[in-house]
Design a protein that fits this description.
Two copies of one chain form a homodimer. By secondary structure, chain A is an alpha/beta fold. Chain A is built from twelve helices and 13 strands. In chain A, helix 7 links the parallel strand 4 and strand 5. The first copy, chain A, binds a DNA duplex through helix 2 and helix 4.
Chain lengths: 361, 361
DNA sequence: GTGCTGATTGTATGCGCATACATTCCCAGG
DNA sequence: CCTGGGAATGTATGCGCATACAATCAGCAC
């Protein structure tokens, strides 16, 4: 790790000026073949790697896009990782059905989409997850590092977003399509749930329904619930005739809520606002010997992998999570190209996926 | 997005020099309370966000750590994401058991660990996934942006790594602990498999075993296979008395291989080199009405979430994936603090987790 | 009031690169 | 052989910040 070579070193070694070195790297066609070869040879010999910091400063753009998520480390201990501890491997039992999975599948897939699209368009991707009090510092920190920022809805206070947006374009991911000055990217939560609910209410003809919503602060959930209500209207069912409960989007929460539901009365269908909740519901139903779909229909929302392997396999609305990530990055690049554009809203299509837990009629 | 304010703007507005502004941000204690307040007020009013590029250039370090993965986009179409397409939601059946999950769980979790540890230590995290021919450009690109780089073993040619390592510290993740000049972080693959295999061979007393290995180019797999062979020795079983097959670490591959195994003769136990393979094996066994664990014991390796929800639940060796990510970042920061250190190797402990597919005796 | 000292603040410089502008080169056309 | 003009290259500058060093200030002992 000797001092890293710079353009000056390369220039000297290849007998040209630094401008030529820079040109070889940025616009090779503007340099004569012969010269280019000399420079590239010097680059390789010296192990030259351009400094992104210097480049970013000079070019006034970093070519990095940032992605900001809600924090997810509550479960991770703070102590440092320690090194090897010999070769003894403990053997433990795991019959405790510890199922607080922290299925971050959703974020993971969005991230993957963003990663793909970013590099495809010549941007690097920087990720940050906001955690508690440090969030503000984190956001401005990352804002100083990137050309544009995608933020998961509701993870950053509007005020902070507005502050950051004075400097770089900000895209809000997966939230309601609010009429603010930001670009938005989200899935058709409302229409998706509406379609699925109508399938249950009309095609299955089942009106004895329980709807398990998610946390009130989830914009996605708000839209899904609205879609469900639309379906009630579509199908001529009074809201008073169904039950609507709240859970917390987790599998454990789904179990607890299912227990509450059954304690009162077993419905003919349970619609859940996300897959994890639905999986928890399935757990409880199976445990009590209630057959799905014969006795109760169950549906979820999201399309996580686990739902494809459950028993019975879970009917759901599939969100294009990877595409969401891609679209977010895309939106940022569009705005970078033309900052004068009006705020855009991208709504990505979803699909109702019928599986065993609520089969095709 | 007017021109972003700089230290000069802040300095002018608050009536101090740029040096003082810089101090307020870097070492607040070196500035008088009164002055600090004035400067901070100006910062807020102007919406000032420090440029990481400039800071990185001046400070000669970017405070970014890079993470490089093998690419995973073969399945992602190249066309751009398009926007809203109205509100019609298609309803599709999904009884085709399309199970090419591309379970990137492993990477996702490693990434999560890296993310957590990086920000915790004051670094930003940049992610890149290598794809085919562009890999070389990608690696040097990211190398120019970061203070240190963690690379998943075998995703980047040694030559390229060596090139990059002339400039920044490089940590190799999850590979064999080779005696090279890089730092290494990995899990106890060999001992883990050895312990598990011995449990089957000795505690269960089952010698009629098939081992399904992974791709030959996986260093993890190589170690696991070695661990299995060690166990054979430990337990006094001749290698000729067991079958060793190769698969490809995927669920589909597991199914195909299981079919091959059964076509010949049903063994008493099937040990798989990763969980996905094992899940595929379970699929086939169930389909044929072969009971697990009564007829056949099945084990995996990794500890992915899906294995906790399978039927029967999968016995496995749990790798600390999040910890791997954290350890990688940790290793980089250690080396940044003291570049003269000898190459380090961190081996993280694993655990054999007994579940139904190979229960406790 | 004077001189001294540590605390604050200001001045000047360089980090490594891109790029506008100036200069030199090369070759076709006369 | 000379000249015009585009191609190729060189020169000079600034990007925004951190920091070494210089200058100034406040407070204290005398």
């Amino acid at each position: 790790m000797a001092k890293a070579p710079t353009v000056y070193d390369v220039a000297e070694r290849s007998g040209v000026s630094i401008a030529t070195v820079s040109r070889v790297l940025r616009s090779p066609d503007a340099v004569r073949e012969h010269t280019r070869q000399r420079v590239l040879a010097a680059v390789t010999e010296l192990g030259y790697v351009p400094s992104a910091a210097a480049r970013g400063l000079a070019a006034r753009r970093t070519n990095v896009i940032g992605l900001f998520f809600p924090g997810h480390d509550e479960t991770v201990p703070d102590q440092p990782v320690d090194s090897a501890r010999g070769d003894t491997v403990p053997i433990v039992d795991d019959d405790a059905d510890t199922s607080s999975d922290t299925e971050n599948l959703y974020f993971d897939e969005v991230l993957r989409g963003a990663e793909i699209e970013a590099w495809r368009r010549g941007f690097a991707l920087m990720v940050a997850a906001g955690r508690g009090a440090s969030r503000e510092a984190l956001v401005t920190d990352i804002a100083g590092r990137v050309d544009g920022l995608a933020v998961l809805a509701r993870t950053v206070p509007d005020e902070l977003l507005a502050y950051v947006a004075r400097r770089i374009p900000v895209v809000i991911l997966a939230g309601a399509q609010r009429a603010d000055s930001f670009d938005h990217v989200s899935a058709s939560n409302g229409p998706g749930m509406r379609t699925l609910a109508n399938y249950v209410l009309q095609d299955h003809g089942v009106h004895d329904v329980v709807y398990i919503a998610g946390p009130t602060d989830s914009p996605d959930d708000t839209e899904r619930l609205a879609g469900f209500r639309d379906a009630l209207t579509d199908s001529g069912v009074a809201e008073a005739d169904v039950r609507i409960l709240r859970s917390d989007f987790t599998r454990d929460g789904g179990r607890a809520t299912a227990a509450r539901v059954l304690a009162e009365r077993r419905p003919r269908a349970i619609l859940c606002s996300n897959d994890e909740t639905a999986l928890g519901v399935l757990d409880v139903l199976e445990q009590r010997g209630i057959r799905v779909p014969e006795d109760v229909l169950v549906t979820g929302f999201d399309g996580i992998t686990a739902g494809r392997h459950s028993r019975p396999r879970l009917t759901t609305v599939h969100q294009p999570m990877v595409e969401l990530g891609r679209a977010a990055v895309h939106a940022i690049t569009v705005r970078l190209d033309d900052p004068t554009l009006d705020p855009q809203a991208f709504t990505l299509p979803v699909e109702v996926v019928l599986r065993e837990s609520c089969p095709r009629v």
